[in-house]
Design brief:
With 538 residues, this protein is α/β, with parallel strands linked by helices. It contains 20 helices and 16 strands. 48% of the residues lie in helices and 12% in strands. The model has no long low-confidence stretch (mean pLDDT 97). Bound molecules: acetyl coenzyme *A (ACO), ligand LL5AMS7Z and magnesium ion. GO terms for molecular function: malate synthase activity.
Length: 538
């Protein structure tokens, strides 16, 4: 533990951590926290107010007070050279091996993730920053304990777009005046402090993905953080480029306003489909049967409310000269099982083709083997053009009712769906608690966002007296907290039988069960599963 000018570092020691946690970098982060912490608290308070309003009315609408922004004539800043072609973006945590693999993947952009795919252990947070700087310096290499060598082989590496944590999380490993620092400001501050100038010198820039925002005031806060940070380090205004994830239902009603707030720093919007589904469930959890979603794996991007959301996103972006970036198809290829591999390739190809045809300028993949699949889908539509921002989608008309038309989603709630939510929820939380924030489970990518859907839909089914429409032993049963506890017992037993007693004992299954039951069953809905889970790391 070290204490300097009101900044206390509590985290365990991390190899080369002193390169990241320099007195000047800590002072920069502390200044951000002191300056913007109260506004962060204010935006979080507003989230609570808005949610109370949704609970009261069961509705949401476009904001009357910002109509002039939606109707006005404005565009976002021009794209820097290395962000003009974003047709394939690979995402992943900043762990060293994956960093090198992502940089060698052939993607145009690497989303270096400290949000959905990352457990914020102190090691992950700080080692991730070490890896990022090494990556930018092109001096990153690794020899694994098994003797496998990793180094940069790609001549052209992807532009790095760093995703800091969202506004909701704090990091107890670093206290500013005795208060845990905002995770968002810590991640942003360290990355910007160490790398903004380095990136500029290499013909790139400090680029960010902004996660889990719920409205334009949160975008204004980020924009003010960028402006201040640029000024503080004497970096030209507008150097930062931010892509805002539209991954909450409230933000979907403020896409124009979010881009407008960020316009001098904006690069585009991304359709973060998994958190979006979570947000729909969370916000309308007590709005009755019309908002109850069927089994998680049966909700697809062709559901009318998802189609409305993505069409509106493309229309909004292209009207404002901004990039529209697609989301993550969950299917993960397998280098061991050709059948699983072929299915993943086909499913991802279908998803990326749909996005390219709808007007997106590029999209995400979760695995290096999917880079060519996404590239092919976008090459077919873009050809030699770097993007299709000039393709206006003025034909799209999306109303509030379209965005909220959850009831038209086909599918059922089944025993298989319930068991899958419980089994995947437990496995994912267990993995997260061990510091691994993204996992392939049953050949699907699971991260915080997908796990949030699993637990929140269980919560919602219980509150809405849902009965299981199909299944073996449980068909016709009403989903209750007791039933879910029984399923938790059975699924944990299944996992124990599969991995063996020894591995089960060595895992974090008891903690995983406690966290899962808290976030799926507690009377009072827990806002984010990572809040109780963070109490159990380091
Ligand atoms: C909702 C959202 O926010 S989506 C964005 C956040 N989520 C993510 O970023 C998930 C990213 N993807 C991943 O983390 C991984 O692909 C997983 C965990 C799903 C699967 O990983 P694995 O089980 O290691 O897959 P697999 O064994 O097939 O990997 C093969 C190789 O590709 C590498 N690899 C897999 N995914 C990635 C990735 N996203 N970035 C870099 N390298 C990767 C592996 O490290 C492995 O390398 P190696 O052969 O040198 O050992
Ligand atoms: O961050 C992306 C999502 O789908 O959630
Ligand atoms: Mg997300």
């Amino acid at each position: 533990m070290s204490d300097h000018n009101g900044v206390t570092v509590h985290g365990p020691s991390v190899d080369r951590g002193e390169e990241v946690l320099t007195p000047a970098a800590l002072a920069f982060v502390a200044d951000l926290h002191r300056r913007f912490g109260p506004r962060r608290a204010e935006v979080l308070r507003r989230r609570g107010e808005r949610r109370a309003e949704i609970a009261r009315t069961g509705r949401l609408d476009f904001l009357p007070e910002t109509a002039a922004v939606r109707e006005g004539d404005w565009t976002v800043a021009e794209a820097p050279a290395d962000l003009r072609d974003r047709r394939v973006e690979i995402t992943g945590p900043t762990e060293r091996k994956m960093t090198i693999n992502a940089l060698n993947s052939g993607a145009r952009v690497w989303l270096a993730d400290h949000e959905d795919a990352n457990t914020p252990t102190w090691h992950n947070v700080i080692a991730g920053q070490v890896n990022l700087t090494d990556a930018i310096e092109r001096r990153i290499s690794l020899t694994t304990p098994e003797g496998k060598e990793y180094r940069l082989t790609a001549e052209r590496t992807p532009a790095i777009v760093f995703r800091p944590r969202g506004w909701h999380l704090v990091d107890r490993h670093l206290l500013v005046d005795g208060e845990p620092v905002s995770g968002a400001l810590l991640d942003f501050g360290l990355y910007f402090f160490h790398n903004a100038r380095r990136l500029l010198e290499r013909g790139s820039g400090p680029y960010f993905y902004l996660p889990k925002m719920e409205g334009h005031r949160e975008a204004r806060l980020w924009n003010d953080v960028f402006t201040h940070a640029e000024r503080a380090l004497d970096i030209p205004h507008g150097t930062v480029r931010a892509t805002a994830l539209i991954e909450t239902i409230t933000a979907a009603f403020e896409m124009e306003e979010i881009l407008h707030e960020l316009r001098e720093h904006a690069s585009g919007l991304n359709a973060g489909r998994w958190d979006y589904l979570f947000s729909v469930i969370k916000n309308f959890r007590d709005a009755g049967a019309d908002f109850v979603l069927p089994d998680r794996n049966s909700v697809t991007m062709t559901a009318p409310f998802m189609r409305a959301y993505t069409d509106l996103l493309v229309r909004t972006c292209h009207r404002r000269g901004a990039f529209a970036i697609g989301g993550m198809a969950a299917f993960i290829p397998s280098r061991r099982d050709p059948e699983v591999n072929a299915r993943a390739m086909a499913k991802v190809a279908e998803d990326k083709q749909r996005e390219a045809v709808a007007g997106f300028d590029g999209s995400w993949v979760a695995h290096p083997d999917l880079v060519p699949v996404c590239a092919e889908a976008f090459d077919a539509v873009l050809g030699e053009r770097p993007n299709q921002v000039d393709r206006r989608r003025d034909d799209v008309v999306v109303t509030a009712a379209d965005l909220l038309d959850v009831a038209a989603t086909p599918g059922e709630v089944t025993e298989e769906g319930l068991r899958s939510d419980v089994n995947v929820g437990l496995r994912y939380v267990e993995s997260w608690l061990r510091g691994i924030g993204a996992a392939a489970l049953f050949n699907l990518m699971e991260d915080v966002a997908t796990a949030e859907i699993a637990r929140s839909q269980v919560w919602q089914w219980i509150r809405n007296d849902v009965r299981l429409a199909a299944g073996d032993s449980l068909v016709g049963e009403r989903v209750t907290a007791d039933l879910v506890r029984r399923v938790v017992d059975e699924e944990l037993e299944r996992i124990r039988a599969e991995i063996g007693d020894e591995a089960f004992r060595a895992g974090r299954w008891r903690d995983a069960r406690e966290v899962f039951e808290e976030v799926a069953l507690a009377e009072e809905f827990v806002e984010f599963l990572t809040l109780p889970a963070c109490e159990r790391i380091d």
